[in-house]
Design goal:
Strand order of the largest sheet: 1-3-2-4-5
Shape: globular
Structural class: alpha/beta
Strand content: 5-15%
Bound molecules: iron/sulfur cluster
């Protein structure tokens, strides 16, 4: 437990920034506003001064921390190795303990704690939302319009095991997670099918809960630690070669925040590239473009594997978009908490996407899928959004 304000922020981490500014052009909020205060360097400076006590903590300044997407693009381009993800998580936890809570943030923290941390409640929420969508009731609220059309929820197979197709070569645990089985069950189904085809027996750890990523990103480290401790006990009770994750945000969080799983957490694209898939059975005659999910490209440094897997499909045409590595503005709860900035960033992304004239935009994170789908719908575009697992599964 911390003893003084800003104790969670490490002096060593903050001191790695040498103020060179090489990250500025990569930062979506700096690119949008051109303001130093909305840049990685500006935010690190602000947190450093708060910690040293050379600037008083003022609520108006917290806005600069709130507007950070936590996309970690700055971390990937920084030549000095600034651990920006760790800095912003600690900074946010500090800020949350010092600021006057707004109604919106209090509500989002309450919703996270009361909903996401409880799988049964998330499933009940999914069932109610599906019914509301059928009655066209969700179109009356903004967050309802952002949701994808929900399909029947992902069901864990009997006995918590999906057997390998043919000879069993690996045994993997699969992260089902909190919202993914409700929002994008088809991505999970495709992921499990690919794993089975690649010779994996897939184990679904019983009692697994939300990994805690959204809590950590929103400054609630206490809840994130609580979930991590419960999940770690669950995972370590089983045997597996890898814990496979098909949500980039969750994968990055597990790699950074779960020390006891070190080296065993794998993004689905990373794992499939490592073990290999059988030869595709069908052509996939589509023109596609790939959006790098920030927590895959920047936090996990995985950019090549998903592209290689896509290019391995017969008949596919992969067109690179401009700035594929720049955030789409989804960033967890950001599109709800900071809708104006999120939308400005999204519009630039949609322009880049449209220029590719692709049939399908592919990504590896539910937040990006939802943000892109919602933006394309608003523009009246017919372009589809798919998880990389869905695209790959089309070939089998
Ligand atoms: S975060 Fe890295 S790239 Fe950005 S100013 Fe600091 S040292 Fe330079
Ligand atoms: S995490 Fe993203 S939005 Fe935040 S400072 Fe870094 S590049 Fe900018």
């Amino acid at each position: 437990m911390k003893s003084k304000p800003f104790d969670l922020l490490s002096d060593d981490d903050l001191a790695t920034c040498v103020h060179c500014g090489l990250c500025l052009d990569a930062c979506p909020t700096f690119r949008t506003t051109g303001l130093e205060t909305e840049s990685p360097r500006g935010r690190i400076y602000l947190m450093t001064q708060w910690k040293r006590g050379t600037l008083p903590f003022e609520e108006e300044q917290v806005r600069h921390i709130d507007l950070c997407l936590g996309c970690r693009t700055c971390e990937a381009v920084c030549p000095s190795g600034v651990p920006y993800g760790r800095i912003i998580e600690a900074g946010r936890a500090e800020v949350e303990s010092l600021r006057r809570p707004s109604a919106k943030r209090t509500l989002s923290r309450f919703a996270l704690r009361q909903l996401l941390a409880h799988p049964r409640r998330v499933h009940a929420f999914g069932a109610v939302t599906r019914a509301a969508q059928a009655l066209k009731l969700t179109s009356f609220v903004r967050s309802g319009r952002q949701l994808p059309r929900l399909r029947p929820q992902f069901r864990i197979p009997p006995g918590n095991i999906a057997p390998a197709a043919g000879e069993r070569k690996h045994r993997v645990a699969f992260l089902v997670g909190c919202v993914m089985p409700v929002l994008y069950p088809q991505s999970h189904q495709a992921a499990v099918k690919l794993l089975q085809l690649a010779g994996c027996e897939v184990w679904f750890p019983p009692g697994e809960r939300c990994c805690g990523a959204l809590f950590a990103h929103n400054g609630d480290l206490e809840s994130a630690e609580h979930l991590r401790d419960a999940n770690t006990r669950t995972y370590l009770a089983g045997q597996f070669d890898a814990l496979v994750v098909d949500s980039a945000g969750c994968g990055a969080h597990l790699k950074d925040f779960y020390p006891e799983l070190k080296g065993r957490v794998k993004d689905i694209t990373e794992w499939l590239a490592e073990i290999g898939l059988p030869a595709p059975k069908k052509d996939v005659k589509l023109r596609v473009t790939y959006q790098d999910a920030c927590h895959l490209a920047h936090a996990q440094r995985i950019r090549k594997q998903p592209r290689d897997l896509i290019k391995s499909l017969p008949g596919i045409e992969l067109v690179e978009m401009r700035h594929a590595e720049i955030c789409c503005g989804a960033a967890g709860l950001y599109s709800t908490l900071e809708p104006a900035m999120s939308n400005r960033i999204l519009q630039e992304k949609l322009d880049c996407v449209s220029d590719t004239r692709a049939d399908v935009i592919v990504s590896a994170n539910p937040g990006c899928q939802m943000q892109l789908e919602s933006g394309l719908r608003t523009r009246g575009s017919s372009m589809k959004v798919e998880h990389v697992t869905e695209l790959l599964a089309r070939a089998y």
